[in-house]
Amino acid sequence: MHYCEIHRPSSTGQLINRLISDSRHFVAGGGRPIDRADIRRPGRDLWILHPHGELPPAGATPEATQVLLIDGSWKQASDLLRSIVGWGRTVRLPLSGTSRFQLRTQQGDHQFSTIEALLFLLASFGLTDAHAQLSLQFELHVYASLLARGKRTEARQYLLDSPVRTAFPELVAKLDPGRD
């Protein structure tokens, strides 16, 4: 995680750490080095997710794979990637669709937030239950954050295409009591 992301409430890296108990985060950038030995787990193929990587190898399994997600702006992620080149396999996932991360401006097509990259990974491994649960929490994070920023109209528009509306109807009513 880039050091600038630590205190950003919109950071999906922070959300991942709250939701996935086995995850760890490391702060880097701005002269903060990461120790490779702290990252690597023995017996696992380390994947560093980045759009400029290679496609995942055929036959890869979640049990044999360790994933390093880089959390930061696109420039920060590129800077962090340069500092860890050679630590593992740089992997890109076949990403499609439009980002649901409406808390920051995406710089182009097929650019997704850190948690969305993880969602694509879970789907590629066929981990449908984990994908569904994480996706719901991500959608709730975006919706609640839009409301917290006073962007009620955008939040209501976001909710139209979100599973949050039906998964958490009581919570939605509490977060936005004036909603139709």
Summarize the structure in words.
- The chain has 180 residues and is mainly α.
- The protein has a domain of 125 residues.
- The protein is 42% helix and 9% strand.
- The chain is built from 8 helices and 3 strands.
- A 3-stranded parallel sheet has the order 2-1-3, with no helix packed on it.
- Helix 1 crosses helix 5, helix 4 runs antiparallel to helix 5 and helix 5 runs antiparallel to helix 6.
- The longest helix is centred in the last third of the chain and has 21 residues.
- The mean pLDDT is 85.
Kindly list the characteristics that best describe this protein.
42% helix; mainly alpha; three-stranded parallel sheet; 180 residues; 3 strands; 8 helices
How would you summarize what this structure contains?
By secondary structure, the chain is mainly alpha-helical.
| Terminal Cα span | 39 Å
Morphology: globular
Which percent range describes the beta-strand content? 5-15%
Number of helices: 8
Low-confidence runs of at least 5 consecutive residues: none
Element pattern in H and E? HHEEHEHHHHH
Show the helix and strand layout.
Elements: H1 12-19, H2 36-39, E1 45-54, E2 65-68, H3 74-84, E3 89-91, H4 114-124, H5 128-148, H6 152-160, H7 164-167, H8 169-175
Helix pairs in contact: 1-5, 4-5, 5-6
